[in-house]
Amino acid sequence: MAKKGKTYTLKQPRRQTLSRLLSYFKPVRGRLIFVIIIVALSAILLVAAPVVLGDILDKVMEADLALNPYLSLDANGLIVIDWQPIITSFSLMIAFYVLNALVMWLADWIVIRVSTEYSYNLRQEIKLKLDRVPLSYYDQTPYGDILSRGTNDVQSISDSISTIVIHSIKGIGMALASVVAMFVVSWQLALIAISVVPVALIVTLPITLISQRQFVKFRANLGEVEAHAEENISGYTVVKLFNQEENVKNQFALQNEELQRSEYKAQFFGSVIYPLMRSINNLGFIAVAVGGALIDGGGINLIVPFLMLLQMFTRPLTDLGNIVSTINLTIASAERIFFLLDEEEMVEEGPDAITDLSNIEGRVTFENVAFSYEEDQSLITNMNLEVNPGDSIAIVGPTGAGKTTLVNLIMRFYEIDEGSIKLDGVDIRNYSRGALRRSIGMVLQDTWLFHGSINNNIKYGRNGASDEDVVEAAIAAHADHFIQTLPGGYEFVLNEDGTNISQGQRQLLTIARAMISEPKILILDEATSNVDTRTEILVQDAMNRLMKGRTSFIIAHRLSTIKNAKTIMVMRDGDIIEVGNHQQLIEADGFYADMYNAQFLGIDEDEELVD
Predict the structure, then answer these.
(1) What's the rounded Cα separation, in Å, for the pair 602 and 609?
(2) Phi, psi of 544 (to 5 degrees)
(3) Is 387 in contact with 552 (CB distance < 8 Å)?
(4) What's the rounded Cα separation, in Å, for the pair 332 and 149?
């Protein structure tokens, strides 16, 4: 059952993906600059605290009481502690930490706002893109994978923004500030401390590249699993009907296993960086402790503040593993999103596209039309057809003959390769797609209803329709009676795809939706295939009234539904092979007569209708 999608390949290098990802921050650049400033301030406040502590220790350990602000001699020659300057100094340190907490809270609040706006804008862009891609994209890409890119991948980026922005900026700021402070305290120990940086880069860079590739594979596998799950959940009835539970379970197990494997590798290589950095940093601490013992006698007033500064310097390096893993996951998600955003779009409409089709008559002309889904596999070649206003054209033929393709071309769901399709003498490519489709009503064999009231589902056919229009359309479609029997009547809430009413009732609602749109041209693709014989007679009567005065294209497999059509067009392998009314085609004793006889007279099981 799995829908075959495109092979996922990266369209641009990782550096370009990151650059493109950052370009989306332009609208919030001012706020990010402010965040950078206050986070840098936060780093300075954190670094200032050990410097103050070092100054306190220097003064506390000052042997000359005349130079020690905290100690003095009383009249009896006893040492007295002056608590006021001590309290003042430690209060300054506490103030630095409190101020740092407030600044970081403000930075977090701003970044959260930025990340939610970022994800909102990205989702909007994806939705607009999905409106512009041709129908062929949906034919080739699993729906679950599309949903995964628009939801999971966007959310992954949004969740990562706070981690990347805050931790990266704060880490860089803290590292730079602590390096400066370390050189102020002791340039010899500072040189020892920063010597761990090149070692850390040499060790972690190869692992980072491996981790990035695994995260790309993980996100792709996640999309495949979600596509498989979405498809089989929506088609669970078919799965159970054909006893395919075991096959579906095995297929899911294979995909889930591949997902687990890629996730394990991605997380493993991402997590390896952290302990490696921790070990390298610990070696740095040992080197500083040994070096501190050899400098100035290793005084506590030197070692304590320097180790605090060293911890602040190595903390960003230690966090580097988590940040790198987050960045890799973000880039992997971004690549999948940009892969979608870079898809080829429908031909752009010109500024002079015709938007007013209110006065069209409904003459449809095909002139030397050629079309194929694949470049090397022709479907329709050199088709010529003229349908006069108000004519009803029934299109029949075997499966794969091109019947549905023909009406999809009229709707501009696909663009033709050669020739032209004209509406009232004007190439349909000169009309705006929206205006063209508003003038055409379409009832498909596969019903589509959304979660909501029956009233809103019918109103979906025409903006601004009133409740009275809804009832009128439902009565015309013979849907009013069953609607009135439902709890709440027209306010009865349908499940997704309308699964809480019968298939025939769903079809009646889609017919009512087409009726309320008051189209100039009508397309019926097996519109009565899912209703019983008695209801079919009623619906056919409603459809006949709907088709009156309108150009109508009727696709049918049950030939009884189109016997009264003014013209019947028989298609085979993308070509029109017969045209006429029912009686004429029966008398011609051709392909149509064979199909009709096969349906109503019966044929031997060993006999083939088509050679």
Answers:
(1) 11
(2) -60, -40
(3) no
(4) 11
Gap between the Cα atoms of 442 and 551, Å rounded: 12
What is the pLDDT, as a whole number, of residue 439?
A: 86
Distance (Å, whole) CA 382 – CA 387: 17
CB contact burial 399-421 (16+ within 10 A = b; e otherwise): eebbbbbbbbbbbbbbebeebeb
Average pLDDT over all residues of the chain: 78
Burial of 458-485, coded b for 16+ CB within 10 Å and e otherwise, reads bbbbbeebeeebbbbbbebbbbbebbee
Confidence of residue 602 (pLDDT cuts 50, 70, 90): low
> Which residue shows structure tokens 């950095």?
277
If one compares 285 and 609, the residue with the highest pLDDT of the two is 285
Q: Hey, what's the torsion of the CAs at 534, 537, 541, 543, to 10 degrees?
A: 100
Cα(320)–Cα(171) distance, rounded to whole angstroms? 9
| Distance separating alpha carbons of residues 287 and 485, to the nearest angstrom | 84
137-147: pLDDT as tens digits: 887 787 778 88
- Round to whole Å and give the CA distance between 155 and 339: 17
CA distance 180 to 305: 13
CATH fourth-level superfamily of 14-341:
ABC transporter type 1, transmembrane domain (1.20.1560.10)
On whether the CB atoms of residues 164 and 323 are closer than 8 A, the answer is yes
Domain 352-439+556-604, CATH: 3.40.50.300
Helix extents (H) in 416-525: 433-438, 454-459, 467-476, 480-484, 503-516
Strand 521-525 relative to strand 551-555: parallel, antiparallel, unpaired? parallel
The tokens describing 170, both together, are: 């704060």
Every domain range in the chain assigned CATH 3.40.50.300: 352-439+556-604
Q: Which residues lie closer than 8 Å to 152 by C-beta, 6 or more apart?
A: 222, 223, 226, 333
CB 494, CB 501: distance < 8 Å? yes
Return the pLDDT at 489.
92
Contacts of 56 (CB under 8 A, 6+ apart): 86, 89, 90
Domain with CATH 1.20.1560.10 in the chain: 14-341
Q: CA-CA distance, 95 to 596, in Å (whole number)?
A: 92
The pTM of this model reads: 0.65
Tokens standing for residue 102: 């407030």
